[in-house]
Amino acid sequence: MTIFSTAGLFIALSLLTALLLAVIAIMPWLRATRTSGTSVDNQLLDINVAVFRERLAELQTDKDSGTIDDAHYQNQKLELERQLLDAQREVTPMVTPGIKSRLILMVWVPVLAALAYLMVGDRTPVFELWTAEDKVGKVADDLLTGKIDQPPVWAIENGQQLISAMQTNVYRHADDPNRWMRLSELFLSLEATDSALEALSRAYRLSPDNEEIATTYAQISFFANKGQLDATSRRILQDVLAKNPSHEGAQMLMAMGEARSNNFEEAQGWIKRLRSSIAAKPGDHTKALASLDELSANVSAQQQQASEGVEVSIRISASLLPLVKADDVLFVAIRDVNGGPPFAAKRLPISVIKQGEATISLSDLDAMMPERTLQSARADKVQLAVIARISHSGTAAAESGDLSGNPVVISADQNQANIEINQQIP
Q1: Is this structure's pTM higher than 0.70?
Q2: How many angstroms separate the Cα of 56 from the Cα of each of 47, 71, 361?
Q3: CA 359 to chain centre
């Protein structure tokens, strides 16, 4: 079906609907032509009869009260009856519209309806969507159902058309998790990570028992969060491992996530489980085992660096707790007391703070520049200051309304600091 046939069908149905409404509106006129004789407007006669009854009732009341005598009552009653008879002789014929008036109405109702539709807003996106569906709708469906892996060259000449057709197709089959999964792959290829995560979350809600969808969702969330396992991705991986303890992808994500969260012992435990699972399978897995050994060594090195860092205990003043919002961000950094870029810094979601307290580890793993590390600062006997701030906007620069604490000065060899967030930036 071409764009012209689609638009033509739409216009034809619209005109037919408008014509039916026009016919319904003039049906009383059409029925009037089938009645015999001259139509009469009886509204004036009905009013005269009503007035006659009211005046007759008034005369009867006056007679009963003795205001007028019987002779005067009879004379007035006869006069009223005469006036009523005269009114009945004067009739007003009803003017029936002619065929010309009816044709004008039948033509202008659909025309005005069409003009109103076109003038309500810009319909260009609608026409472009129709064009996309007519041109690449079948290709989009084949991609989303797995019938083909790559679109033909002609179908990607206009990438926007294919994207629009695929999105429309998915929303028409919103209960199909596989279509949402493949739509997320399209978004990932376009580096639209947020849209990919939204598509994956819908796929996961529709099919939470699908291991491929679950692990893909957790993996994309993991990398989108810069290597951090948030509560959702951790729960998803735990569900996958509860049903399939030997799932290698889930075990690897757990190992990487725990290492990133400085839970080094847990990370080593996952690496050990994964290594045992791979070694137990038949075949040569030398490269895979060597990669796991390298990962284990990296985790051990990170653990050593973390042990040489500074453990910062943060507490929020009780008076400021009501000002903390769910989407706030916690910034913790160690810098030279004289200023300059931090030697180590972390940007964390406010959820790390539990009951107004949190413990954050800062080390060379959190260095912003390779040449500016805590180890180098300590070697140069630099006097360090620990700072902590809760940002409402999520930006690194302090803004009005943010919550902060006074910097805590530590010595070069000190590995622990306590800081209280007890003031609001004016």
Answers
A1: no
A2: 14, 15, 103
A3: 34
